[in-house]
Amino acid sequence: MKLHVQQQQTVKLHLTQGLTQAITMLQYTSAELNSKIDELSMENPLIERKDSDVPRSFYHKTKQHLQREQTIVPEAAYHRETLKSALKRQALDLHLSNREKRIFAYLVESLDSNGYVTEKLSFIASELSVPAGEPEAVLAKLQSLEPAGVGARSLQECILIQLRRLPKDTGQAETVISSYFELFAKKAWKELSVKTGLSLAELQNIQDIVANLSPRPGLAYDADERDVYIEPDVVVSAENGKLTLELSSRSFPDIQLNSFYETFLERRANDETASFLSEKYRQWKWLDQALRQRRETMTRVMKEIMVRQKGYFFNGQHDIQPLTLKEVADALGIHESTVSRAVKGKTVQTPYELCELKRFFSAKVKDSGDGHTSSHTVKAHLCRLIEQENKMKPLSDRKLADLLKEAHGIVISRRTVAKYRDQLNILPSSVRKRYE
Q1: Which helix (H) or strand (E) holds 205?
Q2: Distance (Å) of CA 373 to CA 352, 360, 363, 428
Q3: Which of 114, 259, 400, 418 counts the highest number of beta carbons within 10 A?
Q4: 56 and 100: one domain?
Q5: Against a cut of 0.70, is the pTM above it?
Q6: What is the domain range of residue 136?
Q7: Does 312 lie in the same domain as 256?
Q8: 233 within domain boundaries
């Protein structure tokens, strides 16, 4: 066997550090990008944000149409009473002893965001060196406060606390929840009827009562949706038969060179300061180019989406078309992963809603003709069929598939209906059935 040296030419793609960082920057959300720029500007005195003449606009999360607010967000959106502070305020009327106050404070601090106690009472008693029964007594006082259900140690206890606070007689409901909770959770109505002697209509009534209770009472003190404001990354408006695109200045910020250092950069010195500024200038130039590239890529991707989903922007959600990342990538002559990074975590304000950009990408579903329908449209039809069904005789997945074909020409299997139904958090027909 002879050993010999051979030269061979190969072509390999190497990602430079700058290109890698630019790709990463493309997928940054607005908050991540601004945080990154702030971080770099702290290290690099040459990086300076451009002042925008456009005041920051906030858009209401729950409104269908654009709602512009003042530059300053309402104070209520930031200064809100927390669950723990609300409980401590209510505790003033309980007239607790000093030892009870210690236990109460420990219990409150052990609550999770749902309002549930996360520590075992035996552990709390041990930690505070108090008799085993005292945490239980203080917990009962905590559970008497608002919101109803706070301080529960399980979902079952949370529901029972709320049932006992209702003004009407809930004896049957309390019996079912306390003794047959697992069967109730599974909605095994027929087995429950045999074990409890209650009719299916009575069990249905209990289900309706429980459905109106809160399984996570602590969430009432989270940021209320009506006070949550989001600035979308892009805004698409439809007026006079034309679509216009606007990019948010916060999501796509511009930077400029700090003018104070321009004279130092112009000097041809070879000292340490000049070397430092030269390095920082390269970093500034790279960041400026990366931000411009991010803006350009996002604009191109969004304009292509506007072309492909023109029907949606003019006619509404029912007219959304099937679209894949690859189709947009091929149309723009870029890689599919670039489109994926561009839409990741980005939001758009449309004439109808505030939504994520990924909403415009959906799989193709074959129809009875030669065309295709988007999975979003199929799900919308599915929701309407289930909303209009006879609740005493809910539609099975097989029947839903047949109706989609008959009414809309959509050809999908029973399994696909079940998959879409699960994605929409819609229960099976056996569980949706009502007995009254």
Answers
A1: helix 200-211
A2: 21, 13, 8, 24
A3: 400
A4: no
A5: no
A6: 83-181+212-221
A7: yes
A8: yes
